[in-house]
């Protein structure tokens, strides 16, 4: 997205779903694992926003326990 809030979107038309699937797979293979994880996280956040769910990022789940000697 640019500084003024606009973005460029590229649209392609395919003759068949098989062609579209091949191109989709080729696109995802060009990305690094880190880029794929980032995009997955962005999609998850967008889905939560569309569903009206609060956006909170709790981070890693941690259990806290304490052992006390009697």
Write down the secondary-structure element order. Answer: HH
Largest sheet: none
Radius of gyration: 20 Å
| Amino-to-carboxy terminus distance | 60 Å
Q: Averaged pLDDT, please?
A: 86
According to DSSP, the number of beta strands is: 0
User: So how many helices?
Assistant: 2
Task: State the helical fraction.
Answer: 40-55%
Low-pLDDT runs of 5+ residues are: none
The number of distinct structural domains comes to 1
Q: In terms of structural class, how would the helical and strand content be classed?
A: mainly alpha
Q: Which percent range describes the beta-strand content?
A: under 5%
Per the principal axes of the C-alpha atoms, what is the gross shape?
elongated
Description:
The structure is a single chain. By secondary structure, this protein is mostly helical. It has one domain (1-53). The chain contains 2 helices and no strands. The protein starts with 16 loop residues before the first helix and ends in a 20-residue tail after the last helix. 0% of the residues are buried. The mean pLDDT is 86.
């Amino acid at each position: 997205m640019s500084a003024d809030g606009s973005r460029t979107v590229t649209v392609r038309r395919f003759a068949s779903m098989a062609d579209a699937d091949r191109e989709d797979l080729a696109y995802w293979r060009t990305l690094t694992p880190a880029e794929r994880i980032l995009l997955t996280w962005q999609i998850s956040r967008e889905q939560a926003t569309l569903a009206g769910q609060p956006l909170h990022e709790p981070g890693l789940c941690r259990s806290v326990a304490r052992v006390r000697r009697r």
